[in-house]
Amino acid sequence: YIELDRLSTNLASRLAEKGLGKGDTALVQLPNVAEFYIVFFALLKAGVVMLNALYSHRQYELNAFIKQIQPKLLIGSRQHEVFSNNQFIDSLHEVNLSPEIILMFNHQATDFGLLDWIETPVETFVDFSSTPADEVAFFQLSGGSTGTPKLIPRTHNDYDYSVRASAEICGLNSNTRLLCALPAPHNFMLSSPGALGVLHAGGCVVMAPNPEPLNCFSIIQRHQVNMASLVPSAVIMWLEKAAQYKDQIQSLKLLQVGGASFPESLARQVPEVLNCKLQQVFGMAEGLVNYTRLDDSDEQIFTTQGRPISSDDEIKIVDEQYREVPEGEVGMLATRGPYTFCGYYQSPEHNSQVFDEDNYYYSGDLVQRTHDGNLRVVGRIKDQI
């Protein structure tokens, strides 16, 4: 932790020395490496509002992000196809959208190297006075299935609350060893409770490039990982291989599953095949996060996606005429609460379609509420744009 603080301060100081600070923006695209978190905390310290692109994003998405936030700083990896040569960067120069500073992971000799900036201390003292807690800390990306993801402004206050409350619900402590095999910037992997929750609790985050089971099982054994977070498609792969490699995953105690609908038939296999507890997670980068609790009954855990983090989370389930439906009936999910956002960045037309006059956000999910207050996700209204 001292090293994480030192290295992130090095980078933040170097950026401040170059004139970056509060109100500036950054576009970051890194694979699942420790440097992702060093950069994340460095930019928070410097007050630079970042957008963390997924490593799967290509030139089309990166172009759209750059046009929206016009970053002064770009951090990428030379191993990514977009940055394997200078064609994309040169194209930004041509339209006057080139960031002032470009840092490269796995850099070439002519680049500013990200690792050099991280590892080299700055002699001059830089005062990192706190950014007001209600200001935007960074942009998350919407989970829409078509078009370019929309930008979700997350404040220090709302995100920190979500992380702290999630860490408590999930029972994290200094002994927690979390496998990060999903994309590190994804909201699930970052804050539900994700790496930030584990770091808040004083635990350990173990990185994997992807959820491929054989590599992950080896990492679990080597680092005695006791918690993992996966999407259903990855769980299926793990279930198929677990019997052959059960000795490698003996340390695993908790598997979180979220990000997509998880059939009950698969949910029931998790404790039996992987020999660990299952926790279902239904969350959104826009805010609302639901968990099955660790002491919920098996039936609740296998058949629902949990209930909200906070007693102050407000949920309505409504029909097509926006009338609330009786308990147990399927309807559209609408929510507002202490850590749910107030609108997409620079998207007034879309915001008018997904918020009502009482500031409830309509996520596009079709859900039903059980008698115990848990939510069951049954589908989507349509593909979200």
From TrEMBL:
Top-tier EC class: transferase
The organism's place on the tree of life at top rank: Bacteria
One example GO MF annotation: nucleotidyltransferase activity
Gene3D superfamilies: N-terminal domain of ligase-like
The protein's annotated pathway: Siderophore biosynthesis
AMP-dependent synthetase/ligase domain span: 1-345
Keywords, sorted A to Z: Ligase, Membrane, Nucleotidyltransferase, Transferase, Transmembrane, Transmembrane helix
E.C. code: 2.7.7.58
SUPFAM superfamilies: Acetyl-CoA synthetase-like (SSF56801)
Pfam families reported for this sequence: AMP-binding
PROSITE patterns from the UniProt entry: AMP_BINDING
PANTHER family, alphabetized: LONG-CHAIN-FATTY-ACID--COA LIGASE (PTHR43767), NONRIBOSOMAL PEPTIDE SYNTHASE PES1 (EUROFUNG)-RELATED (PTHR43767:SF1)
Protein name as catalogued: 2,3-dihydroxybenzoate-AMP ligase
Organism from which the protein derives: Acinetobacter baumannii
Recorded name of the encoding gene: entE
